[in-house]
Amino acid sequence: MNDHATDRNQLIDCDVHNFLGDLDELVPYLDLSWQKMMNIGKFKKDSVLNIGSFQFPHVRYSHASNPLRTDAITPSGDYPGTDPQFLVKDLFERYNTTYGILNVGHGSMSAYHNIDLTIAYSTACNEWMYDKWIKADPRYRMTMVCAPLDPKATISEMQRVAHRPEIVGLNLQNVNIPMGSRHFWDIYEAAEHYGLPIVLHPDTEGSGEYSPSQFIGPASTYMEWHTTLALVAQRQIASLVCEGVFEKFPKLKVIFIEYGFSWLPSVMWRMDKNWKALRESVPWLKKLPSEYIRSHIRLGTQPIEEPFKPADLISLIQMVKAEEMLLFCSDYPHWDGEFDERAFVHFPQELKRKIFYDNALESYRF
């Protein structure tokens, strides 16, 4: 038995990050024209002074020391999250993980200005993840990346790879278009058809030309940016509900990973209050906003909020009947991840079973 085994039998980790060790890993999946544009493969030699070379979109906020755990550096000395076999040993075997869902960690190009390159990258990234990671261990599952600024391209990519059983969600990412917008409705229709939930994870905020910056403008520091990421989720949930997305697509689920969840009661209560007084402005809503949220929205547990009295967190969950809404996330290998069950020690056994396994099994396409 491993050193962190408990009396639970199964665990689905809904946020495991894998990284490109080098952009050259994408060379087998990209045409020469894209390789040249990205200065990879044989074209690396053509940029002696590195002038005009491709740069992956980076978030403007840098962690004061290192955003990744230095104890997760691979045995060969490579970046954390770049070695499938080591990740299995360092995470899955240590914590008795049944399945780990990969959300690509080096960033997407969702908000990048060159949409054609974004499309090419998305296809290459999905193939790289499948070949290098999914085939490495049967416990790996993945969310596919796409180009949300181009719905037709996103649907085409779903048609190409969504039949693979190891793909359990669509990693849509945030761009500066509210998620309730009709821009996304064809994507939602396709996702509903394939049984894939939409997954939202912090990534493009501030890292691309078409990315939101927490809706009131950019933050000044990493701490401010990291603390206020939850505002993005709150705004998107309001958009999804108020625009009637869940009336239009009754089987769709949207999963918000790494935004926390302690803010959920205030959002639900405020929306319910406003709906009672302002329902004429949203006549397509047939029930309380909180009912749509409870049925269609799922939230990752990380970064879990820790009140002065730990049991108060259970009360907060019970206040809004969110027992079926929460999904365990380790956020491996990030600095603020949760890698064991100490944060859940006060939770009832039935609630832990839902968070660790049952809710993910119901929310993703397993």
Automatic annotation (TrEMBL):
GO cellular component, one term: cytoplasm
Keywords: Hydrolase, Lyase
Annotated Amidohydrolase-related domain residues: 124-366
GO biological process: secondary metabolic process
Pfam families in the cross-refs: Amidohydro_2
Top-level taxon of origin: Bacteria
Coiled coil: none
Protein name per UniProt: Predicted metal-dependent hydrolase, TIM-barrel fold
Organism: Brevibacillus centrosporus
